[in-house]
Automatic annotation (TrEMBL):
The lineage of its organism: Eukaryota, Viridiplantae, Streptophyta, Embryophyta, Tracheophyta. Residues 97-143 form the AN1-type domain. InterPro entries: AN1-like_Znf, AN1_A20_ZnFinger, Znf_A20, Znf_AN1. Residues 70-79 have a biased composition (Polar residues). SMART domains: ZnF_A20, ZnF_AN1. This is Zinc finger A20 and AN1 domain-containing stress-associated protein 9. Keywords: Metal-binding, Stress response, Zinc, Zinc-finger. Residues 18-52 form the A20-type domain. May be involved in environmental stress response. One of its GO terms (molecular function) is DNA binding. PROSITE patterns: ZF_A20, ZF_AN1. Residues 59-92 are annotated as: Disordered.
């Protein structure tokens, strides 16, 4: 008797597996799943990609198009570029060098172990310090600017006496 009641309890609590697997809604011959809207994985992926492409096309249509460039003739373009004008108050732009895998001081290959300096160069282990490669970066000025940005000066208004 105890075995029969135990058997009935376990039968009631077991998960019920559907008798028939669900075929794909597109009738492709594969089995679908309820999590994929009764579609097989291939049909669901195709449907998802199609919906994503439609969404991207709608976004492109909604965004305003940029003005097209007017055609320029070769006669209007000057042959010599004008020199850039730098005023005394403006700081010059920093020189951007392409990423290299050689030391700028001794031209030795550094590979993955190269050390990047604030001056923009890559150096080997023996030239990685600013004293050894003659670095022209102003560390003191950069430190002062960093401290000034981190700790702005706050001046309170004077309190009027009664």
């Amino acid at each position: 008797m105890a075995q029969e009641s135990y058997k009935n309890e376990t039968d009631e609590t077991e998960c019920q597996v559907p008798e028939k697997p669900i075929l794909c809604a597109n009738n492709c011959g594969f089995f679908g799943s309820s999590s994929n809207n009764n579609l097989c994985s291939k049909c669901f992926r195709d449907l998802f990609m199609h919906q994503q492409q439609q969404w991207q096309q709608q976004q492109e249509l909604q965004q305003p198009k940029l003005a097209q460039k007017a055609p320029t003739s070769l006669a209007s373009i000057s042959a010599q570029p004008e020199p850039a004008k730098l005023e005394a108050g403006e700081p010059s732009e920093t020189v951007v060098r392409p990423a290299t895998n050689r030391c700028l001081a001794c031209n030795r290959r550094v590979g993955l172990n190269g050390f990047r300096c604030r001056c923009g160069g890559t150096f080997c282990g023996s030239h990685r310090y600013s004293e050894s490669h003659g670095c022209d970066f102003d560390y003191r000025g950069a430190g002062r600017e960093g401290i000034a940005k981190a700790n702005p000066i706050v001046k309170a208004e004077k309190v009027e006496k009664i």
